[in-house]
Amino acid sequence: MSPRALAGRALLVGLLWLLGGGIGLVAGVAFVVYDLVSRPAPRDLLVLAVLLLGLVPLVVLARGLPAAGAVGPGFVEGNLAAHYLAGAGLALLVVGVLRETRSGSPWAEDPDAHGREAPTTDPEPAAGREAGAGPTGTPDRREHPALPAPSEERR
To answer: How far apart are CA 45 and CA 12, in angstroms?
Structure first.
């Protein structure tokens, strides 16, 4: 393991410990172990983050909604399970997004894996199309001429 990866994992555990206390520390260590054992793809981390964040309203509803006048900071203090689920989901979301942006474009690796064609830039127009036309022969929307100036000014 590189020193940079070790420092990143230590920073994540330390930050979760600072923000989440003992449960944050346990969650951080559990994530580092999961990361070392299974090497999840950034997409897997994002899916897991969405699942954790999606559980938050269910946990709140399971405990019952308070009266309208009781909603406030005390409501969150009384529902720490939802609080910790949201924190873990946000932490996984941040890690997943950082890994996704650092890995580069998914199109560069295998465009067919996403079920779509990779976007290409064709320096020369295809036969039968004029320059500035899109793939179907329609005008390319990126090259718009400037709008004409109004003939007289409005007052």
So the answer is: 14
